[in-house]
């Protein structure tokens, strides 16, 4: 290394202690950005690995389940996970036991079962599929701590926790809701697991388990114990090779077979990590770039003097980069530590809100840490490299002049780039209007980011335009002291733009994400409920609707029709539409023509033919596939079953919520619980709906876990899923506001503290500290208002196209979100301006004038 280069490095490192505020701003921006990128990397790795430590299946070295997902006909490798549990055919058990090295294969079936105490089912863990055959207790293993195993029908073994909660012991009688039906059993024993098991476990005799199992011809899972001396991994590979249609799992991946929903959580978690990571990357790039640009702008005079005293452009450029990278390297070290904490926190919050199953494990290996650190360092380097170019290339005399009167215009290249991003925002918004509602967010969301980038690029000129165009209005509202504030804002437009950019971005992300989701969610709820014509709804919370419950509701006076309902997802496999990665919603109901609970208009065919293996198809999808009434199609249902069904009718389904409609018995048999989840009730023409709801409530009063109400209960299932998506967007909005707050606080503090000498001159000229602070508050208020206006306008390019896409045209959502964003912005700007002003005027004016810097 040459002496000149060493001198540059020494000067760069030595200068850091004289600009602690600017260095701290850069440090914080890189620290938070790096930690969030590492957190996103952890979410992505967790989605790829899908590790879930087995609990009830912990003793089985190998766990075998049904097919893991739908292998897309037009893709060689892509497989979409099934939303329901796919079973293992009984004839596959003999094939598995015949594989060399298999010592024992233990089948397991699960069905809905919950102990009733004081008329209420006792929940255990996150699943209601708590009933099992006692023979499968070895998969944990469970051992009897009291009593005997269930040998006869009517006997049950309870796990230790459930027995304690129910207050029963061996020999007692206990009521259990099995598949929605209340039954009485004798507690033959109490079992203790070898390790912690979160879910309840109720073990029945083999004869009872066969009777209660809802999927004849299959078992849910198979636990395989290798013969003595046989390696489990090697045996698993051998079984997978001989039975490729099954899913063979070992180690922590066994948990995905035990906990329903782990596989299906992969795509939502990848999307969360991708959207969140992309947002963080753009925010970090803008914030870091603005922070470094502001720091360099405030050192323009110093850098010009270095040039005038013999420093070459290359040396000045290198010095700025070395300073920035020294601070960024320290920030990355801190970000690596904070990234682990942030990742665990975001994942835990996501699990608590149902975004991912609680059993899924958060994994954060070396790749997220290395990737996050590398991206953070690269972002800081690129920002410093470009930000330092103007200072390094400027002639010394020109640089000194610019330091005295900073230019407010941006380069022609930067202006054209801003226009390009603005046009991109408009193009994305236009494209979103013509996309399906479910995929519109893929283009609508990035519109907010591109709009904020355009603001960041043209920020100084935007500030100048606002002052010039709306100066008179500002004076009328803020008074005579606004004159000096506007002069400062115009002269320091670059510094003001550095603060404006992150706040604008935060407002755009917060409002765009939240209101686009609420708009889409409200439209989805409206479309979903519009498919049905019901007066009362009965929901079974204890595993499903028992046939006796449906009969009892049907026999209630005033009921014209009562239909069980079940929802799932599936595909039309033949003819294939090429859109297999996006399964279609499937609804199972009893849709007779008389007082039908289905409100969707029938365009051709008849619902009276919707029996047996049949399906009613949305007309839009039928036209795409060339399907007509009477044709036979092959359905791939949520558990992987292939069903050949006759098209009974074509429906005028809502565009935002098209659904395949099947007979309830057909669809329910291919769901995990095997039972309908709700009963939809249609009143007779002369029956008052409210009186009918009251009568049904009284009728189902003795059924544990069963609730009844009006048609508003119909939205519970879809609202639960939409609430999860809304919560994700709220999380993104809060994180965007938080990141912007940190960035704005840093840059406001840096910008205000760098003006100590200016404030000292004002005070020597006769202004007191209150007047100076009032001027700063006007400046801060001006930034806050401009950021709110720009951010709101940018968010409209996301929200309005989403509204058009879902057919509502007018956005919807809670007003308090907008008010909260406004309050948050002013709480970011005004207190910081006031506090920084107090710190900047801490010294006496004559002492402040002697300080170095501007």
What does this structure look like?
Helices cover 53% and strands 16% of the residues. It is of the alpha+beta class and 854 residues long. Strands 17, 18, 19, 20, 21, 22, 23, 24, 25 and 26 form a ten-stranded mixed beta sheet that branches. Strands 6, 7, 8, 9, 10, 11, 12 and 13 form an eight-stranded mixed beta sheet that branches. A hairpin with a 2-residue loop joins strand 6 and strand 7 (120-121). It is elongated, with a radius of gyration of 33 Å.
| Total E-strand runs | 26
Radius of gyration: 33 Å
Largest sheet: 10 strands, mixed
Q: Give the count of helical stretches.
A: 26
The outline comes out as elongated
Could you name the ranges where pLDDT drops below 50 across 5 or more consecutive residues?
none
- What is the percent of helical residues? 40-55%
**What is the averaged pLDDT score?**
83
- Give the distance, in angstroms, between the N- and C-terminal Cα atoms: 34 Å
**What is the subunit arrangement here?**
single chain
Structural class: alpha+beta
* Strand composition percent: 15-25%
Please write out the topology:
Layout: H1 3-15, H2 20-49, E1 62-65, E2 69-71, E3 79-81, E4 88-89, H3 90-97, E5 102-108, E6 113-117, E7 120-121, E8 131-133, E9 142-147, E10 155-159, H4 160-166, E11 173-178, E12 181-193, E13 202-204, H5 206-212, E14 218-219, E15 221-226, H6 232-242, E16 247-250, H7 255-258, H8 266-298, H9 300-308, H10 313-352, H11 366-393, H12 396-404, H13 412-433, H14 441-457, H15 459-478, H16 482-491, H17 493-530, E17 536-540, H18 547-554, E18 559-574, E19 584-589, E20 602-605, E21 614-618, H19 619-625, E22 632-636, E23 642-651, E24 659-663, H20 664-668, E25 678-683, H21 689-699, E26 706-709, H22 716-753, H23 756-764, H24 769-806, H25 815-840, H26 845-849
Parallel strand pairs: 8-13, 10-12, 19-24, 21-23
Antiparallel strand pairs: 1-15, 1-16, 2-3, 4-14, 5-15, 6-7, 6-11, 9-12, 10-13, 11-12, 17-25, 17-26, 18-19, 18-22, 18-25, 20-23, 22-23
């Amino acid at each position: 290394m040459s002496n000149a280069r060493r001198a540059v490095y020494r000067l760069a490192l030595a200068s850091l202690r004289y600009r602690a505020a600017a260095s701290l701003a850069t440090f914080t921006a890189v620290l938070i950005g790096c930690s969030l990128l590492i957190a996103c990397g952890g979410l992505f790795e967790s989605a790829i690995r899908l590790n879930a430590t087995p609990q009830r299946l912990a003793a089985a070295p190998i766990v075998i389940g049904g097919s893991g997902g739908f292998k897309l006909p037009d893709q060689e490798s892509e497989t979409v996970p099934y939303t329901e549990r796919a079973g293992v055919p009984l004839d596959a058990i003999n094939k598995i036991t015949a594989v060399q090295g298999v010592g024992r294969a233990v089948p397991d079936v699960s069905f809905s079962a919950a102990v009733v105490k004081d008329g209420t089912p006792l929940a255990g863990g996150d699943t209601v599929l708590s009933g099992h055959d006692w023979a499968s207790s070895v998969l944990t293993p469970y051992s009897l701590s009291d009593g005997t195993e269930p040998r006869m029908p009517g006997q049950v073994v309870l796990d230790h926790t459930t027995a304690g909660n129910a207050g029963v012991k061996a020999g007692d009688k206990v009521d259990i809701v099995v598949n929605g039906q209340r039954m009485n059993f004798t507690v033959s024993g109490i079992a203790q697991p070898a390790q912690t098991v979160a879910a309840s476990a109720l073990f029945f005799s083999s004869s009872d388990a066969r009777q209660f199992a809802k999927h004849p011809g299959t078992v849910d899972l198979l636990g395989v114990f290798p013969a003595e001396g046989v390696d489990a991994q090697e045996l698993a590979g051998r079984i997978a090779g001989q039975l490729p249609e099954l899913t063979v799992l070992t180690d922590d991946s066994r948990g995905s077979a035990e906990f329903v929903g782990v596989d299906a959580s992969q795509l939502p978690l990848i999307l969360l990590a991708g959207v969140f990571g992309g947002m963080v990357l753009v925010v970090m790039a803008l914030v870091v770039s603005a922070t470094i640009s502001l720091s360099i702008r405030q050192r323009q005079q110093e850098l010009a003097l270095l040039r005038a005293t013999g420093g070459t452009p290359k040396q000045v450029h290198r010095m700025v980069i070395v300073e920035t990278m020294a601070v960024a390297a320290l920030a990355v070290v801190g970000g690596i530590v904070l990234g682990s904490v942030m990742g665990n926190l975001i994942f835990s919050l996501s699990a608590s809100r149902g975004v991912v199953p609680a059993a899924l494990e958060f994994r954060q290996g070396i790749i997220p840490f290395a990737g996050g650190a590398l991206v953070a360092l690269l972002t800081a380097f690129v920002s410093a490299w470009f930000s330092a170019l103007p200072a390094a290339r400027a002639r010394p005399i020109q640089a000194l002049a610019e330091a005295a009167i900073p230019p407010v215009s941006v380069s022609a290249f930067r202006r054209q780039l801003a226009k390009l991003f603005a046009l991109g925002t408009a193009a994305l918004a236009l494209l979103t209007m013509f996309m399906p509602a479910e995929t519109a967010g893929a283009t609508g969301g990035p519109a907010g980011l591109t709009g904020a980038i355009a603001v960041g690029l043209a920020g100084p000129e935007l500030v100048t335009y606002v002052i010039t165009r709306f100066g008179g209005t500002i004076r009328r509202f803020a008074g005579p002291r606004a004159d000096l504030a506007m002069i400062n804002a115009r002269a320091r437009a670059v510094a003001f733009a550095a603060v404006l950019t992150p706040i604008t971005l935060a407002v755009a992300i917060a409002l765009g994400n939240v209101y686009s989701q609420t708009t889409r969610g409200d439209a989805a709820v409206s479309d979903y409920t519009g498919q049905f014509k019901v007066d009362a709804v009965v929901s079974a919370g204890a595993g499903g609707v028992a046939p006796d419950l449906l009969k009892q509701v049907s026999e209630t006076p005033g009921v014209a029709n009562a239909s069980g309902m079940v929802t799932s997802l599936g595909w039309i496999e033949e003819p294939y539409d090429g859109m297999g990665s996006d399964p279609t919603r499937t609804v199972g109901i009893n849709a007779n023509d008389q007082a039908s609970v289905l409100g969707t208009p029938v365009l051709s065919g008849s619902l009276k033919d919707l029996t047996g293996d049949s399906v009613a198809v949305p007309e839009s999808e039928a036209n795409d596939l060339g399907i007509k009434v009477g044709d036979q199609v092959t359905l791939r249902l949520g558990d992987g079953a292939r069903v050949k069904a006759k098209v009974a009718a074509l429906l005028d389904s809502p565009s935002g919520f098209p659904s395949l409609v099947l007979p309830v018995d057909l669809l329910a048999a291919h769901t995990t619980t095997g039972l309908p989840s709700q009963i939809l009730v249609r009143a007779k023409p002369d029956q008052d709906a409210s009186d009918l709801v009251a009568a049904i409530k009284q009728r189902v009063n003795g059924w544990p876990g069963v609730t009844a109400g009006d048609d508003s209960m119909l939205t519970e299932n879809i609202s639960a899923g939409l609430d999860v998506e809304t919560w994700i967007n709220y999380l993104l909005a809060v994180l965007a506001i938080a990141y912007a707050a940190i960035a704005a606080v840093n840059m406001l503090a840096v910008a205000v503290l760098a003006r100590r000498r200016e404030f000292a001159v004002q005070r020597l000229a006769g202004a007191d500290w209150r007047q100076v602070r009032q001027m700063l508050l006007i400046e801060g208020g001006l930034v806050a208002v401009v950021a709110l206006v720009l951010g709101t306008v940018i968010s409209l390019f996301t929200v309005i196209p989403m509204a058009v896409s879902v057919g509502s045209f007018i956005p919807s959502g809670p007003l308090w979100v907008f008010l909260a964003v406004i309050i948050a912005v002013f709480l970011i700007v005004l207190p910081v301006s006031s506090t920084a002003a107090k710190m900047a005027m801490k010294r006496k004016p004559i002492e402040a004038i002697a300080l170095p810097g501007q």
